[in-house]
Amino acid sequence: MTYCVGILLDTGMVFLSDSRTSAGVDQISTFRKTTAFQKPGERVMVLQSAGNLAITQAVTSVLRENLEAPAATAAGPTLFGCRNMFEAAQCVGEALREAHRRDAQSLQQFAVEFNASFILGGQIRGEEPRLFSIYSAGNFIEATAETSYFQIGESKYGKPIIDRVIRRSSSLNEAAKAALISMDSTIRSNLSVGLPADLVMVKRDRFAVARHVSIDDDNAYFASIRKRWSEALREVFAQLPEPDWLRSPRGWAPEQRAAD
Fold first, then answer.
1. Would you state the pLDDT for residue 72?
2. Is 52 helix (H, G, I), strand (E, B) or coil?
């Protein structure tokens, strides 16, 4: 499995993804799931993937090959030729549909689901930074002021921390910290998600990746915050008042009182 999160802020964007694709007692595979496409000074885009690895790699390869193909042979806008991020999301969606047209029927014969999803975020000169979540069918939705982040893969474990602390006005460093705690929560609860992780930060109006960090078990900052977060949670939990339901029947449910 996978866990990826992309966060859209007033000051830029933060992306974090793990690199584990399978897990078991004697088999763990590692593949990068974040790809950056950039023309410094003009545009920057970050693509994250989850789902069937063969499908997601095929889609990424198609996008790369289209960039290298002569303009006369291109079937439509490429990531470097699209006029805005909406068209860029359409490019990814069309590459995904191309993979579906080629492979879906064969996969079905082997009872393999066509499963792939993407997060695409970035900025093209002349418009605001934008973030999209792209589904297996190639359709997509865009982040809004009310929903300023997307997750794909094993999203449920890492969602609460982002919901509680991140706002559009948060800084890039705050979003990076929240994303890393979100990743740690997911790793602790699901064996199929694991390090190393790729953290990418993009500053607004810079049109280039500002920071790309590979985080493994030896990363001192990640080790520090995951330890301090666990300790802080235990401390706060210990300080919470305990229920008095065992001392007083007032807190019991009616069916419990009847049974007693």
1. 46
2. coil
Among all chains, which residue has been given the structure tokens 């740690």?
184
Residues 201, 183: Cα–Cα separation, whole Å: 16
Q: What is the reported pTM? A: 0.90
251/245 Cα distance (integer angstroms): 5
Asked if 12 and 201 count as a contact pair (C-beta separation under 8 A), the reply is yes
pLDDT band at residue 177, thresholds of 50, 70 and 90?
very high
Q: What's the mean pLDDT in 150-170?
A: 96
Q: At what angle do helices 220-239 and 172-189 cross, to 10 degrees?
A: 80
Domains in the chain, CATH or no CATH each: 3-259 (3.60.20.10)
Instruction: Work out the number of other CB atoms within 10 angstroms of the CB of residue 49.
Output: 29
In three-state secondary structure terms, 174 is helix
Q: Smallest Cα–Cα separation from 149: which of 171, 119, 116?
A: 119
Q: Residue 211: which residues within 8 A CB-CB, separation 6 or more?
A: 199, 200, 201
